[in-house]
Specification:
GO terms for molecular function: L-tyrosine-2-oxoglutarate transaminase activity; pyridoxal phosphate binding. This is Aminotransferase class I/classII large domain-containing protein. The chain is 40% helix and 16% strand. By secondary structure, it is α/β, with parallel strands linked by helices.
């Protein structure tokens, strides 16, 4: 037998161990309610879909023969120009500062390969989307978790961040708006982060796939980019409720060309995986022009209603404590292990699934052992939440 790599085997065992603990109850008396995937289209909410205008634009592009050929490995020229136009923020961004990727994960992968060497480290948030937790070790890059302040809208703890920094640190990874916290940094905090990075000569990689999805003001890192280099990652997935289309982008804000070598390295990396779907890329200019970058932002009032309802209801259940979000369609809920008589949030999730057929994502699966709880989605319909709350109360024996 030809063996897989040790890295792949270890990752596979970890995933199997997790999902075996959350085994779906096939013959359960109650229908399954699953909040595992951060996919806004799953529950049929009438606000979680692309406009018919967007569908018609794509249909018109499908019929063009040139949209079924290979293009440049960094993406089509119209798509890159459109991203530069709508996300340039007056920074003289051009198509040469943009790469179109197949999902933000591909952009994060390029950052790892294009910036880091073995023995170096990166700074990532705890809590945060755990993309780097597994894959970085395959390239012998250390992941250092910096603290977020749960009692202060999940802002960065700069004292802890300073303690994690050394001469081998390659970049600071921030997620704003945040998955899974639902936090949105204020303009002042974004500026604080940029100032810190500039003072310490550290590149920022800003994951902004939830661009604009805030209940109040949203400020992109690209808007405040000045002296130091910043790579912003975004995409259509959440902005236009099309996660299956997998059209995303990387934008290099670097007026002093400090990261010019890195940008060229990433352009070269694009030749390994080629490019995203051409007719969707060439639909992007019209979609951005007609629907604008505020398409998701304009729908946030509906998710805020669900957010407020869930906080009101879940906080009434003994042992649960919601941490209010400032945006996205996520809500962090902390659990009291003693009250529920469990040793960790995975055991809590396992018991809830077994007894009530509700599947939740434990916070510990987001690369943390500091917080025990689960990520709740605010994109389902009200009838699903009413059913879920009744089951949760029964589970907690309220």
């Amino acid at each position: 037998m030809i063996k897989a790599s040790e890295f792949l085997l270890s990752q596979n065992q970890a995933l199997l161990a997790n999902f075996e603990q959350l085994e779906v109850q096939v013959n359960h008396a109650k229908p399954l309610i699953s909040f595992m995937k951060g996919d806004p289209t799953l529950f049929g909410h009438d606000q979680c879909k692309m406009s018919q205008i967007g569908y018609d634009i794509v249909k018109s592009e499908i019929s063009k023969s040139q949209n079924h050929s290979y293009c440049h490995s960094t993406g089509t020229q119209p798509a890159k120009q459109a991203v530069a136009k709508h996300f340039g923020h007056g920074k003289n961004i051009t198509e040469n500062d943009v790469i179109i990727t197949q999902g933000v994960n591909q952009g994060l992968f390029y950052c790892l390969l294009g910036i880091c060497d073995p023995g170096q480290n990166i700074l990532v948030p705890e809590l945060g989307f755990p993309f780097f937790d597994g894959i970085a070790q395959a390239y012998q890059v250390e992941v250092r978790k910096y603290k977020l302040q749960s009692d202060n809208q999940w802002q960065i703890d700069f004292e802890d961040l300073k303690n994690k920094l050394d001469e081998n640190t390659k970049f600071l990874y921030v997620i704003n708006p945040s998955n899974p916290c639902g936090s949105v940094f204020s303009k002042e905090h974004v500026q604080e982060i940029i100032n810190w990075a500039n003072q310490n000569r550290i590149l920022i990689v800003a994951d902004e796939i939830y661009y604009g999805m805030s209940f109040g003001e949203f400020v992109s890192f690209g808007e405040l980019a000045d002296e130091g280099p910043i790579i912003c990652l975004g995409g259509m997935d959440k902005m236009f409720f099309t996660p299956g289309w997998q059209i995303s982008w990387m934008i290099f804000y670097d007026k002093n060309n400090y990261a010019g070598e890195i940008k060229q390295a990433m352009f070269n990396l694009c030749q390994l995986l080629l490019h995203a779907n051409v007719f969707i890329m060439n639909s992007l200019p019209q979609i951005l022009d007609h629907l604008t970058i505020f398409y998701a932002k304009d729908k946030m009032i509906h998710f805020k209603e669900n957010h407020d309802f869930l906080i009101q209801q879940l906080n009434q259940i003994r042992g649960l404590k919601c941490v209010p979000a400032q945006g996205t369609f996520y809500l962090t809920v902390l659990i009291d292990l003693d009250i529920f008589q469990v040793k960790n949030d995975v055991e809590f999730a396992k018991k809830l699934l077994k007894e009530q057929n509700i599947m939740l994502l434990p916070l510990s699966w987001n690369g943390t052992d500091k917080y025990q709880g689960f990520r709740m989605l605010t994109i389902a319909t009200k009838d699903i939440y009413i059913d879920m709350i009744e089951r949760m109360k029964e589970f907690a024996r309220v």
